[in-house]
Amino acid sequence: MIFATIFTIVFILMSLYISKRFIKKLHFKKRYKNYLNYFLIINIFGIIGYMIFRRYPIVPNEIYFLLSIPIGIVFLLFSTAIIYDIFSYLINTNIKDEKRRDFFKRSLDIGSIAIAGSINAKAMYNAKHIEIEKVDVKIKDLKKPYNIVQISDVHIGGLVDKKFVSSLVKTINTLNADIIVITGDLVDTNLIYAKEALNELKKLKSKYGNYFIVGNHEYFHKVKNIITYVNSLGIKVLENENVYIGEKNLGFNLVGVYDIFGHSYGSYKPDIKKALNNKQNSPTVLLSHQPKYVEELKSTKEIDLILSGHTHGGQIVPFNLLVKLQQPYIRGLYKHNNTTQIYVNKGTGFWGPPMRLGASSEITLLKLTSID
Length: 372
Fold this sequence. Notes:
Elements: H1 2-21, H2 30-53, H3 61-94, H4 98-127, E1 130-139, E2 146-151, H5 162-172, E3 179-183, H6 191-198, E4 210-213, H7 216-219, H8 223-232, E5 236-237, E6 241-245, E7 252-256, H9 262-265, H10 272-276, E8 284-287, E9 305-308, H11 319-323, E10 332-335, E11 341-344, E12 361-370
Parallel strand pairs: 1-12, 2-3, 3-4, 4-5, 7-8, 8-9, 9-11
Antiparallel strand pairs: 2-12, 6-7, 10-11
Helix pairs in contact: 1-2, 1-3, 2-3, 3-4, 5-6
């Protein structure tokens, strides 16, 4: 309730900015401005409905879709309004001739509305298309190559349903995975509503097994129950522990920790010392939902590669700029230090509106090979 209330208030304030600093300044007839303001009000009610039904997705998907879109629309209109404000100021201060100034203002008005509409349509199109990101990673002392397929932040619930997950599984099964890892935020609704989609994950195929770690959103929906159910699907949940992948002396350690949200939750806290306990003397891959967990580690010398998610790559530009304030890495492969690399998956599903702009949904195919 606290999150939903704050979230709604923020979007109401954004809508007020759009109305006062964008719509009010448009060189449109008053009735058209009123229509745009009514549209904003409808969007606010849509956001309130979304916050209610995101936890209990009992409405048809068509309605849930309509309720989720306003979040993206308001955010992108807010971004457009800020840009409009800047250009409007530049026109007013730099163009002295009244006729020229009026021409540029009207052009800015029409252009801003057209661009805002086009961007929203493009963002919805992007969310429906998942890209396969192929990434080559060199690992010291790795005895043989391995293919790891990573998905993250699927956010099952509402629009991410059985049909979505079934299609996702079919794509993954074409990638010849040695292991499949799911790096958190798999479930984003009451477990009872997620089971039908989760059951599709039984069909995942890999040589050495499928693995999962919890993300922060699992804590919102009874994390213990989710862990138990995912384990029942034949997907091993790594709970501050490690497993050995591959043939003896030819494989690597796969380590998984709880999410750092466990510190706030009061249990299911990440414990890297426990997770690394009794691991074999082989290369080590760590699954950690949030990239910033790396900042909690006193040393990463025992870890060759960290696989994370959480950021969604920003999901919608320019939100990625805000994500950067909280996370050290946003998307892609980074060299954290001389011993450790980190890869951040942009997310396979989406949170909130079915929109992505500047950050495509992804399935990652990591090809691990030894350093020559």
